[in-house]
Structure to design on (998 residues):
């Protein structure tokens, strides 16, 4: 019996689908139920009180704003730097493999350890930055980077920009490599300048990979808390607190499981809202 | 052909991976012991020697040691125990114990104790030690070590600064700090400070609390149901610390990120002259920097107390206790291990290896090396002047709220008074919530 | 004309140098710290070049901390995760890209939405499930759980790349008598090799740098991963900075080498198969 071609799609998708549903399905539902105080607690009873508490919690509200600022800034910089470096590394030049390996190095550092290292770099007394500033006689006294609220947040953003941009760069580089050479050749024949070929050949071809990169990077930056956990712990005060770290704290340090779950649900909704316009962009392509 | 190779590779991979993951079933009883101190150099070695001795005395029981980093300990334990697994025997400090008891993550050990002789067997432990591990007259853990926090100082730096007498109250303490804060190289920048308090999350609880108590105040009221941060004593203590940092500048810059490891390192490398510490500080600080000659120059004095303060309590207790997993399949073997690790001989070994006091009265009062140690004599006496931090499930959250407000005050986001009032109100909200 | 080309290449060179310095400065710090004694690591102000060079940190890792085991465990877990999720993901991405069927948008969105639940909440239920099937404390269990994180991302990435290969190519191959599967494996997949490499590296690094799952799903010391081992160097009493730095330096060499190898493999494969006209 020959399977019709259009039914073959199930053959392709089934392994992934089964794997995800069987392993991820139950935990995902359990996670949501947790926020309603229904599972995983010693005395289950349906309640929305966790959600109610959220809006009186200054730390939660600050984290919400911080998360928004952090994610939008970081992803924007990732895109800018990532695109720039991808363009750079797509060029024909000697040793470009060597440079490509250098380009992904920041991303090879796991986030918790990256946080430790950047904490050390920005540390007030034995830190690298202060070491350079003082030995170079730019300053007489060290700057307390991680103890000043605004600076701590900025340093955290900087560190995450450093660490995460190769992700976007890699996606875009692969996308650039997929652009057929003949389009550029045709453009050159027509007399297009570098900038014109970038705007009219490169960007349109790259459009959907950019959108995908933005969606994935946004989700990724919303989820991560390893960097901020090691670098500032959310402090000083709550100036660098983000929702993912807050969830972790409430779940594992204060043992407020349903409160933590409700924060996580808010974060998930937050991520959905941000990514919907981009999702629609990719889905529209299907037609 | 490609497809076939793919499937073959996949199957080989899965097969070899599952082989690696297979647990070899042994004939003997196997139990696991998890402790964050297994991950340390000296402490881990000491524990492994103890475990080897236990296995020698109990053929047929094998103990697998599972180290875990302190910061990750509760994440690992609670995830496992919630799901019905986890290490058979494990150690905890006092902080999360009440939460573990409340959630049913530790086994009730009273039946085992009854078999050993009940109250008589327990009488060797300090009654104070049994308090954190007891709930509703049921005992959930056996105490191992207890220490009180004191002020550890570098006597050499004190001599160099011309300090003749040890500060007994906070006014004198401030003067001493100021004298010790200076530039060690002529015309150089200030690179030595009086003290560094721990203000980062790790180990904040033990250190800051002694300042509050030294002023006669505390975090919570004695019944642990309300915040005591609105008392004049708490206010004075809070403002005192903020001023020490911002006005007198006797602490190194960046002190808000100093955690206990950093504080030890600062003392070890002579960047500070004092720290709030206890018995282990001597071992660790000396080990960090052999040039310091820590065992010679490090001394201790009790936490200063404000003049006129009537309360006896001026310091905080730290305790490590051993617990049994309610999911364990070998409770008898697990109990044997707990009993072994907390018996007299092991306590004595623990002091020799790690300079830690025991929870057994008989050991602290009669063991030769303890009686001869200049540090032990001070700390043992201070145990009487110290109390545990509040032993309630909400305590971690209350403490973190306080710490965040303190950091905000030092970062000048709020005034000290505003920060303290906020902390008080937030803690009240947490306590009345549950 | 030549002058403009020269200034162009000088700008490119400068951009490369800036990128290199930006990326490598923290690594320089890591390297120099890994060769310092603990005393010098703590010095104020920091020394930029070690005054006293020592390889104590590296020998400690090699002999004392049993990092070799952690290294091998990480390698096995990350390679398995990367390979498996990329292969299964590629199949699924092809299905999503080439076919239209009911519920496609919903399935793709659900796959993505599943990643919006933070790992913190998922670890507990995962643990329970894995221990029910006896996969707790096994590398296989860890691999399976990590795959569920890398898979949705891989599918989205790969679909994007497969979308850039025109369907005419598929048609041409099938007209020539190739089955769907053959078309996919022999024609489409080679056409997205850079994208495939990117996806494999992505999945590898996700697994390599994971901490939470390795912490909760593995209890035996012998089965720990490298990242977990490094974080354990932050102890209750001491933070061994030079050892942490040394271990991290070694840890980053693996994905870098992998990327280099994959790229070389890619170049050979790319120039050999003339897919793009």
């Amino acid at each position: 019996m020959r399977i019709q071609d259009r039914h073959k799609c199930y053959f392709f998708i089934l392994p992934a689908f089964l794997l995800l549903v069987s392993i991820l399905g139950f935990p995902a539902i359990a996670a949501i139920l947790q926020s309603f105080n229904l599972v995983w607690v010693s005395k289950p009873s349906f309640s929305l009180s966790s959600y109610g508490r959220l809006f009186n919690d200054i730390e939660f509200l600050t984290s919400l704003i911080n998360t928004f600022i952090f994610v939008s800034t970081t992803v924007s910089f990732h895109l800018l730097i990532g695109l720039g470096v991808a363009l750079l590394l797509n060029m024909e030049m000697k040793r470009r493999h060597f440079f490509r390996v250098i380009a992904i190095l920041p991303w090879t550092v796991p986030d918790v350890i990256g946080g430790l290292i950047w904490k050390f770099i920005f540390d007030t007394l034995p830190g690298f930055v202060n070491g350079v500033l003082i030995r170079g006689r730019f300053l007489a006294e060290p700057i307390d980077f991680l103890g000043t609220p605004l600076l701590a947040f900025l340093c955290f953003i900087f560190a995450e920009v450093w660490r995460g941009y190769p992700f976007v760069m890699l996606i875009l580089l692969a996308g650039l490599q997929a652009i057929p050479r003949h389009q550029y050749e045709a453009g050159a024949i027509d007399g297009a300048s570098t900038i014109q070929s970038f705007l009219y050949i490169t960007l349109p071809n790259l459009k959907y990979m950019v959108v995908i990169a933005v969606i994935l990077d946004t989700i990724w930056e919303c989820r991560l808390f390893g960097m901020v956990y090691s670098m500032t712990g959310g402090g000083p005060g709550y100036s660098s607190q983000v929702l993912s770290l807050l969830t972790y704290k409430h779940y594992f340090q204060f043992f407020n499981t349903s409160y933590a779950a409700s924060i996580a649900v808010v974060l998930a909704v937050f991520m959905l809202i941000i990514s919907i316009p981009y999702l629609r962009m990719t889905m529209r392509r299907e037609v | 052909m490609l497809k076939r190779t793919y499937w073959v590779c996949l199957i080989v991979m899965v097969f070899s991976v599952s082989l690696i993951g297979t647990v070899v079933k042994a004939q003997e009883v196997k139990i696991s012991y998890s402790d964050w101190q297994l991950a340390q150099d000296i402490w881990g070695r000491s524990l492994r020697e103890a475990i080897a001795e236990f296995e020698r005395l109990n053929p047929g029981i094998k103990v697998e040691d599972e180290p875990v980093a302190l910061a990750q300990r509760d994440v690992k334990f609670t995830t496992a125990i919630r799901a019905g697994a986890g290490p058979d025997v494990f150690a905890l400090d006092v902080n999360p114990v009440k939460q573990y008891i409340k959630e049913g993550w530790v086994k009730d050990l009273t039946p085992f104790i009854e078999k050993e002789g009940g109250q008589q067997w327990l009488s060797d432990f300090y009654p104070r030690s049994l308090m954190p591990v007891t709930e509703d007259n049921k005992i959930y853990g056996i105490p191992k070590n207890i220490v009180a926090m004191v002020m550890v100082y570098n006597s050499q730096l004190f001599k160099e600064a011309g300090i003749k007498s040890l500060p007994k109250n906070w006014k004198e303490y401030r003067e001493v700090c100021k004298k010790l804060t200076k530039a060690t190289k002529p015309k150089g920048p200030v690179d030595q400070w009086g003290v560094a308090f721990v203000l980062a999350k790790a180990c904040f609880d033990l250190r800051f609390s002694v300042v509050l108590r030294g002023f006669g105040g505390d975090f919570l009221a004695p019944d642990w149901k309300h915040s005591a941060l609105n008392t004049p004593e708490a206010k004075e203590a809070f403002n005192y610390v903020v001023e020490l940092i911002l006005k007198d500048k006797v602490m190194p810059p960046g002190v808000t990120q100093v955690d206990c490891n950093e504080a030890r390192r600062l003392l070890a490398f002579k960047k500070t002259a004092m720290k709030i510490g206890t018995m282990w500080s001597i071992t660790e600080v000396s080990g960090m920097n052999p040039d310091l000659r820590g065992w010679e120059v490090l001394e201790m004095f009790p936490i200063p107390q404000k003049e006129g303060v009537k309360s006896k309590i001026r310091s905080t207790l730290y305790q490590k206790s051993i617990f049994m997993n309610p999911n364990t399949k070998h409770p008898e073997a697990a109990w044997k291990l707990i009993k072994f690790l907390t018996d007299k001989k092991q306590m004595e070994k623990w002091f020799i290896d790690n300079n830690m006091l025991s929870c057994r009265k008989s050991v602290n009062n009669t063991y030769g090396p303890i009686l001869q140690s200049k540090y032990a004599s001070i700390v043992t006496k201070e145990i009487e002047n110290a109390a545990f931090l509040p032993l309630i499930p909400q305590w971690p959250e209350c403490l973190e709220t306080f710490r965040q407000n303190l950091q905000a005050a030092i970062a000048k986001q709020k005034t000290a008074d505003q920060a303290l009032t906020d902390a008080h109100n937030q803690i009240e909200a947490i306590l009345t919530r549950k | 004309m030549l002058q403009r080309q020269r200034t162009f290449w000088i700008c490119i060179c400068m951009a490369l140098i800036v990128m290199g310095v930006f990326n490598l400065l923290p690594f320089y710090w890591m390297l120099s710290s890994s060769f310092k004694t603990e005393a010098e690591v703590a010095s104020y102000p920091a020394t930029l070049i070690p005054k006293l060079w020592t390889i104590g940190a590296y020998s400690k890792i090699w002999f004392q901390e049993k990092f070799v085991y952690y290294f091998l465990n990480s390698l096995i877990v990350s390679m398995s995760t990367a390979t498996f999720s990329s292969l299964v993901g590629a199949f699924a991405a092809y299905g999503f890209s080439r076919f239209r069927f009911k519920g496609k948008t919903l399935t793709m969105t659900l796959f993505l939405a599943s990643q919006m639940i933070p790992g913190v909440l998922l670890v507990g239920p995962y643990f329970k499930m894995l221990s029910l099937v006896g996969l707790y404390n096994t590398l296989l269990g860890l691999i399976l759980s990590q795959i569920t994180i890398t898979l949705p991302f891989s599918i989205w990435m790969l679909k994007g790349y497969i979308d850039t290969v025109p369907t005419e190519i598929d048609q041409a191959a099938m007209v020539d008598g190739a089955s769907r599967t053959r078309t996919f494996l022999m024609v489409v997949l080679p056409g997205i090799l850079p994208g495939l490499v990117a996806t494999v590296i992505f999945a590898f690094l996700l697994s390599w740098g994971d901490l939470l799952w390795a912490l909760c799903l593995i209890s035996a010391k012998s089965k720990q991963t490298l990242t977990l081992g490094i974080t354990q160097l932050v102890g209750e009493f001491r933070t061994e900075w030079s050892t942490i730095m040394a271990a991290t330096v070694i840890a980053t060499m693996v994905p870098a080498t992998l990327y280099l190898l994959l790229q070389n493999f890619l170049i050979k494969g790319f120039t050999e198969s003339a897919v793009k006209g």
In short: Residues 29-146+319-387 of chain B form a domain with the D-Maltodextrin-Binding Protein; domain 2 fold (CATH 3.40.190.10).
